Amino acid sequence: MELRIIMSYKMEKLNKELIKKDISDILKVWESSVRATHFFLKESDIMDLKPLVEQGALYVDEFFCIRNNEEIIAFIGIHEDKIEMLFVSDDFRGKGIGKQLINFAISNLNVKYVDVNEQNPQGTAFYEHIGFSVFKRSEFDDHGNPYPILHMKLNK
Questions:
Q1: Is residue 129 in a domain?
Q2: What are phi and psi of 138, to 5 degrees?
Q3: Mean of pLDDT over the chain
Q4: Which of the four pLDDT bands, split at 50, 70 and 90, describes residue 2?
Q5: In this structure, what CATH number is given to the domain that contains residue 103?
C-alpha cells in the first residue's frame, strides 16, 4: 500500500495581535528564506535584520500568511500599494506559494510596487516573471547598508 502525504495549505489574514503571537514562526520563515536566497548577507547582517523584520510585520497595512497544517510556511506584508515583505520557507520554495500570494495581493489589494535586493537575482527574475520591471535603482538599502535595491513596478 502506498502512503500519500497530502499538504493542506491555508491562507490567513493576521492582525497585529496574531502577528505578535506568531512572530517566532514568522521569523523562522524569514530566516529560512533569506539563508536560501540572500547569499550576499553576512551572519551579522541576518542577526541585525531580525528585529527589523518584526517591526516591519507590525508596520504593514495588510499581513497574510500561508499555513501548512497550522505551521506558517510563507507570508506577505503589504503597505499601501507595495509589497514590503514576501518570504517562503526554503522547504516550500518553488511550489507556487509565493506566486499565489502575489497574485492575491495584485487582485485584491491593488499592489503595484516591490523592492528587491539587486544581489538576489532569483528574486528579481521571480518578480519579472509575474510582470514587474525595474524602474529605478538605489545604491543603498533602506537602512543605509551597501546592498543596492531595485525598485520594481507592475506592468499590468
A1: no
A2: -115, 140
A3: 91
A4: low
A5: 3.40.630.30
